[in-house]
Amino acid sequence: MPIAAVVLVGAALGAVRSFPSNLPTGDSPSYASFGELAAATDVFVRGEVLETASTSVEGTAMTAYTVRVDASTGRVGSEAVVVLPSVERPSDATAETEPLRVGSSYVLGLVPMGKDWQPTSRSQSVFEVVDRDLRPSADGSLSVGRSVQQELGI
What we know:
mainly beta
């Protein structure tokens, strides 16, 4: 049975949060297989992006996304904070910084960041869901494993 929760991706609009100094805000780890990614991931969630907000982590511009979680592979509270690096111009986006879109659904592989969350690998643990069709990772290198798809109801 899907777990209903709300993932607050980021802080309140315009708020600045204090995060641990060892945050990866740029180049993410790279995994050779979905199994390796899954082993490094604490939880996978499936949900829809509801809104965005700007925030900052140690002076680095980040975007905060509020995501309604429709299913999860583990325990996710009713609210969690997840931040992603921002880009000034969409044309500058890479697989590491491609923004999520409000109204779009995703499967996100997440790891803790203090009391909050971040993608395990920005380029490999963000998978868009379009009409129940699960797309490959942002960099095109991985697809979500069948057991995780089943657990998330895809």
